[in-house]
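Researcher: I'm comparing several assemblies side by side, and this is the next one on my list. It has 942 residues spread over two chains. Same procedure as the others: predict the full complex and return the structure.
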Amino acid sequence: MLNRFPLWKYLMVAIVVLMGLVYSLPNLYPADYALQISPSAATGSIGSQVEEESLELLQEQNIAVRRTERDNGTLLIRLENPEDQLVARTVVQQALGDDFVVALNQAETTPRWLQAIGARPMALGLDLSGGVHFLMEVDMDEYLGDRMADYASTLRRELRAENIRFATIEQTDDRVITASFRTTEDRSEAENLIRRQFPEFSRSSTSDGQLQQLRLVISEDRIEQLQSNALQQNLTTLSNRVNELGVAEPLVQRQGNNRIVVELPGIQDTAAAKRVIGRAAELEFRLEARSDASPLDREEYPFREGSGRSGTAELSTEVIATGENVTGANFEYDENNRPQVSVNLNSAGGSRMMQATRQNVGRNMGVLFIEYNTITTYRTVDGERVAEYENVVDRSIISLATIQSAFGPSFRITGLNSAAEASELALLLRAGALAAPMYFVEERTIGPSLGADNIRMGVTSVIVGFMLVIAFMILWYRTFGLFANIALSVNLLLIMAIMSTLGATLTLPGIAGIVLTVGMAVDANVLIFSRIREELDNGVTPQAAIKAGFDRAFVTILDANITTLIVAVILFAVGTGAVRGFAVTLSVGILTSMFTAILGTRSLVNLFYGGRDLKRVPIWGVWAWRK
Amino acid sequence: MAQMKLIPFMSKRLTTAAFSGLLIIASLGSLAFQGLNLGLDFTGGTLVEIGYEEPADLSVVRSQLRDLGFPEARVQYFGSERDVVIRLQQDDNPELGNELVQELRGDLDQQLTLRRSEFVGPQVGEELRDRGGLGMIIALLAVMVYIAMRFQFKFGVGAVGALMHDVIVVVGIFSIFQLDFDLTVLAALLATIGYSLNDSIVVSDRIRENFRNIRRDDVSYIIDLSLTQMLGRTLVTSGTTALVLLSLLIFGGEMIRMFALALLIGIVVGTYSSIYVTSNLLVQMNLTKQDLARPEKKENDDEPEEIPDWLKDED
């Protein structure tokens, strides 16, 4: 008998190997360390003078530049040496000032033809690239408490507006508001109104003899919705803020019901990162002060830079609504194709807005942006540059427009200068404030030197482990060992290719997973080869022994790998960060090793030995014991 | 059958059972009395790794920390004398790491670099602990169900017995020597489960096959035969895996050291347990031919089942 594969099987193996080769190729092109310069306001643009200025500065510092690119309003300066990156950024940022954001970037160097077919290098985890990892938890109790208080005050206002008399309306428990009335008539009128306008509450009536009470319990659905909204808004806010930090590939991701993960590769100054991420900003809607208002009732504020107006305006001290009331803000065009921002307020903000605007048509309404910020200034003391931090509250007007007619929870801000201004205003309105307070529950910083060390050590241990296994296999199994080694190399290639195309992140435990896979992947071959030897010992002919070895070992290999895969999947499901990285490479490694160790090795064996009359099978190495 | 010398594994089964028992008692005892040296991931707290330009003097660092009001700080070298790790129980101040570096740099005339700083809040630590334990239990159950389905209930018990033995012993060794037990060690423990299982399955597979093909219904003989047949394979696979783990232990750096160590111990213990614990339990439960009787329709076959088409030869 002969062991032969049909042509299509050889072709399939060859194609998979080729694909593995192509898609793991981008990892050979290390990213350039680069500076990415973009204008800080959406209205700005980058001209050639910025490019020239930056290059001159870098030249003064003896920082070698590899290449510069300018497109889509951003400038990318690729540097020759990674260690120059931080210095370069500081120098350029100081010179260009606040009008530009200078970010650290790892610019791809993958050739275009590879990019065109979707090949890209593996993403490196923080433990390999260096950077900061934050885990923040949203304080939902406090947030829900605030919402219930909002509800209570809205209810009071609505009942008053409808002339329904009540004694008290108060929050009496976590999720309960109790309203009390003097008469049952008042109570049933109130109940009607609440049924119509606040269907999210379930109602029950009680009486304590003197007062008729209405107990309102907010529905679980509504609570879930509120929580999910709060988390979503915090997520948006954080993403927007992280973008301001100027990090190449930030990650802002929801984790569970109340947590947000922020990962900033390349950032070293955690303090600065936290100042931006944890920044408190607030929005206020106020009327423009009447010219005859008393000085006590008016305050003068400058227009915000980039708002398209200069100078100052006076606003009334009375606040109609705040950023917390904004539930949505979108940039759009009106029928004359002029940019505007549509704003949605929650019910409390909406009814206050309705009241205020009804009485003030024709007057101006201003949007005041309040920012609690930290300013970094650089000074030179004794020849050394030191950074100084100062906390400031910055109040400025982002928009001042005429009230055309009374409006409630949804309205539009018009009279904006440009589309860029409008979209930035919408963004600020949306992302201006965190919906719910947050605090840091986990923080990890990996310095750049440690990241580089980890890569170096990880790669070394993979190479050494790989070499040891290869040497061992050849000594033990001779030519078949060589086949197994080729399969093992292809396995490594496939792991890299799959990780790269999936966009999976490589971490240090991930490298450990690869190392472990190298050790375990040969198990399949060991099982097959031992079986072949056994069959040969039993006096079976060479070709039949090869066939039996592959066939009989298959089920064992399958069982062993499926159980390991079960464990890897569980690891992934219950694990976080580091453990997941390990689980991913382990699972990928198990799957690819099934392919390479069984089909790959078999193709080689069939190709070289399967088609001819075989007298001896070269499966005993110099070390292997033989009876 | 080939004339292979039969190694009488099962004649030592009482001795090894006693040995395993001793290991388990020692492990459980140590766990009960001194517990685990849980890492930051599970306890919450702050960890700062600082790189010094010159070899650092730990006693100086300790006294500096005492002066700063952290007498309970644990200070250790990490890999080299220029690398110092400081662990604090504080878990209410995420800024602590940065502050420490500033303070320690203060009165030294060398440059310090913050290599790593980790802060884990108490609630996260607790959660990770719970999820880790949960993962372990789910993994054990899932595996038991799979083996019971693929083989037979007694094999499931045998394999899971071996797994529990391995987990207890590895955790026990970490407890006895008070090694740092962090998240990566937990991952290694789960990987050990996967590995040890791999071994148990391969052995069980052969035991099943031999039970079907050989007329003697003597559990000890069949198990000895199967173990002897698989010994080469078991040693080679454990050997190659141990080789790469040694490479990881030596070259992989400090952050991955405990992981490599845990897995290495796991593999040694796992290899031992797949030979002695699984088989021992099978003998104990008195595995018989009847246990492995196939459903009627698939009468004779020593042919392996379920070979997919794509693997079949077309000769």
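Model: For your comparison table: The mean pLDDT of chain A is 80.
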